[in-house]
Amino acid sequence: MITLKVNGRDQQVDADPDTPLLYVLRNDLELNAAKFGCGLGQCGSCTVIVDGKAVLSCVTPLLLVEGKQVTTLEGLGSVAAPAPIQRAFMEEQAAQCGYCIAGMMMRAQALLMRNPKPTDAQIRAELEPNLCRCGTHMRILRAVHRAARLMDSADAASDRSVR
Amino acid sequence: MARRLRIITGIAAVVLIAGAAAGLALAWRPSIAAIAPPRPDAFDPDIIKRGRDLAAIGSCNTCHTVPGGGNYAGGLPVPTPFGTVFSSNITPDAATGIGSWPEAAFVRAMRSGVSRDGRHLYPTFPYDHFTNVSDADDRALYAFLMTRQPVSATPPANQLTFPLNHRPLIAGWKLLYFHGGDVPSDAAKGAQWNRGAYLVEGLAHCGACHTPRNALGAERVNAQFAGGEVDNWHAYALNDTSHAPVRWTADALYAYLRHGWQADHGTARGPMAEVVDNLSSVPDSDVRAIALYMADISGTSPSNGKSPADAVAQSSTAQTDPAGAAIYAAACASCHESNRPLPYGGVNLALSTAVTSPDPRNLVNIVLAGVGGVAGERSPIMPGFAASIDDAQMVALLKYLRARFGKRPAWNDLDRTVRDARAAQAVSLAARDAPGESSQRGKP
Questions:
Q1: pLDDT tens for residues B371-414?
Q2: Whole-angstrom Cα distance, residue A22 to residue A38?
Q3: Beta carbons of B331 and A40 less than 8 Å apart
Q4: Number of Cβ pairs closer than 8 Å across A and B?
Q5: Which of B334, B388, B436 minimises the CB distance to A64?
Q6: Cα distance between residue A142 and residue B431, in whole Å
Q7: What is the value of ipTM here, to two decimals?
Q8: Which end of chain A is more exposed for a tag (fewer CB within 10 A), N or C?
Q9: In this complex, is the C-beta atom of B331 within 8 Å of any C-beta atom belonging to chain A?
């Protein structure tokens, strides 16, 4: 048994230490926001946050994240109470098929925690590892800017921390 | 007594004045009159094309182009033990580039490291190698550069410590270390070998990274290709002290330099990735020549007489670190022991010079940053683990890889190496986060 800290809660997982974090999140913990895309750490759809940094969960074995804080999109907010990054993506209608969007949001969230007011160039550079085939890139850029503004406003300030 | 003292003082003064005069005479170089920038159509297109290939062989862009900046507009900070030197703008802009340089001034800069206005150039510009470039090739490079897009950009002022910020001192450095005409030539070895020698010792300036430097920053002539460093990477030894587990042949070197990877050795990355990227577009015969000459230089060292199969077979019996073994099995083995050949599988680490090298930095850099795919090509890829592996896990993994695959004495001070590599990556990340920056660098 391996103990994982996911979205602020300890989870006992019965899995081999070389199991990719993504498989455990989706199959064992039923947290299905992070997606299996390429399985090679090349597309970004599996991105989650580990100790504040964006991590490609499909190439991250459980062994490496034992004892670290894992945050998935479900840990940021819910349908009833979306986090600023989720609100911003909805308000900008940044998803088309949506497969890449959870990963996009997680990497953008990690950027905004490090740099609350990123420039357009900084957002583009940061999101470079994440691929989108529908082509909503311009909306995604607008959504990240909007999220930065939402996080900056006082009423949303308490939502910025990652649980 | 007093008279003798006066005589000694007098002699000392004469010697000092004479020395200063000789120094000035040596340091002084005439200015060459500025010209109006030549029209692009003044140059023969065939010569411009040859200049382009030469610029790729010389990797001019890796120092003279900042990622995301104008091609050849300079401004790249080059850290040295003596401070930071910023590369020059070598576009044909008259005010800030070399647009007002006549051909003779360009050839003189390549040949002897002197600017058009007569100032000595810092040897960060590798004229200790470029002095070996032929006049015809210098003229082709000039034709290529003078037909690029002019960019108005003045690089930041150099940040060098006193007294090295005084350029006349460079004359003294040249007197000590700058000796032209050291291209080996041997008619018995054939035209291809001699072409390789000309390129390697001249324009390609391989020794600028792969030869260690002395306290004054000059390449150590008695340790040519014994391994040097660049940008927090170790440039491997290429002579008979090479730590490559399998000997480099001319064919293997050719494939590596042409495609960026070779099945028995692995993938070019770090600063070498840009070199092979440039070499992928130059005439095949020149890459063959470079490979042939370098294979001859590397000779056979006792450590690398093995076949690839032997090297891999002998890796499994060594002592291992259990924590590192678990991380390797969980995070690395599915690609690196997949038996899928490059570029679809990872290189077996028993073949990797990063693991057998006395300097662990390259292995640390590659585990942290991974290997990016090359756009539009089949190329090896590896995800970076910087965000998911912590320092203790990294050290355990390094110890294991070194013992099992490297079969060499353990590396020292790995904690600090890992911390330093992360800090260096954070710096490059911050540079990438700078407004308006892109991670792409223009090609020749």
A1: 887 777 778 889 999 999 999 999 999 999 999 999 899 999 99
A2: 12
A3: no
A4: 64
A5: B388
A6: 23
A7: 0.88
A8: N
A9: yes
